[in-house]
Amino acid sequence: MKLVSIDRYPGKEMEVLGLVKGTIVQTKNLGRDFMAGMKTLVGGEIVGYTEMLNEARQIATKRMVDEAEALGADAIVGVRYGSSQVMQGAAEVVAYGTAVKLID
Length: 104
Known about the structure:
This protein is an alpha+beta fold and 104 residues long. The protein has one domain (2-103): Translation Initiation Factor IF3, CATH 3.30.110. It contains two helices and four strands. Strand 3 and strand 4 form a beta hairpin. The two termini are 16 Å apart.
C-alpha cells in the first residue's frame, strides 16, 4: 500500500474509493507514568511516552491500511494524523486519508 500526504498520487490518475481511518486509544503503564513524573523534574524527552505514541501511530496506520485494502485500494492519499487526550493517562491517535485505486 502506498501512502502519501499530498492530495494526488504523482503521475497517476485515481479513482476515489472513500475515506479510511484507523484509531487507537493507548494508555501509559504505571511504570512509564512514574518515570515520566520524575523526568519532569530535570527536563528532556520522555522516551516512554515517545515510544507509546510511535506504537499507537503504527497501529492506527495499520488499521487505516486494512480498511483501504478491504475497499480494493492501491494507495491512500492525503494521509493525516491527529491525537488527543481522552482521559488522564490515555491518548487517542487517529490516522486518516482517502483510499484510491491508481489508474495507469
